Amino acid sequence: MLLISGDPANDLVDIINKNRTSQKLPQLNDSPGLGCMALQYAELCKGNCTSNGVVNCKPPEDDFTEVFGPNCGVELPTFGTITGHIVGCQPKYLEPSPAFSHVLVKDSKALSILRNKSHTEVGVGLVGAHKSSFFWCILFSNGKTNSTFVLEDNGKGDQAKEGVL
Question: How confident is the model at residue 156 (pLDDT cuts 50, 70, 90)?
């Protein structure tokens, strides 16, 4: 699969959408607000990966509204429902396509989340820890484009940085 964006988060969104459309499901809109929150999730959990790629981190649900959203500058009144998430980790960096198939969507549960018909938006974040693991996070929402997870000041939140959509 040839992807040319050069941004692994964007490439993963493209892969997700190609997978969904191959199953006759609608494409998901990429959400910068969700992407930034996915990056926050990944940052928080990056050191919690076992040597065989098991994630040992589950932030409290409140972290999305009380920590991740504000850090990204997501306007609170636009905070929507997160309808699913997929996380994965690996001791070394993988390109988006192998990361998708071997780290993120490696079982029927993850595939079911990916193909959930209620999703309308997606955001991807990934981080790598020096001499540690790489951590990927995909967040899904059923919100309306440009009306949920809206970023204040055009996305100039405290923690918005590269690696997000």
Answer: low
- Buried-state track 94-108, b at ≥16 Cβ within 10 A, e below 16: bebeebbeebbbeee
* pLDDT per residue as tens digits for the range 62-77: 999 999 999 999 998 9
End-to-end alpha-carbon separation of the chain, Å? Answer: 19
* Other Cβ atoms closer than 10 A to 152: 15
Output the average pLDDT for the chain: 87
| Dihedral over alpha carbons 15, 17, 18, 20 (to 10 degrees) | 120
Query: What are the start-end ranges of the H helices in the chain?
Result: 8-22, 32-45, 62-63, 69-72, 96-99, 108-114
Alpha-carbon distance of 95 to 28, in angstroms, equals: 21
Alpha-carbon span 121 to 77, nearest angstrom: 17
Contact 100, 12 (CB under 8 A): yes
Q: What are the boundaries of each domain within the chain?
A: 9-153
The fold of the 9-153 domain, in CATH, is Pathogenesis-related Protein p14a (3.40.33)
- Residues 20 and 83: their CA atoms lie apart, in Å, by 16
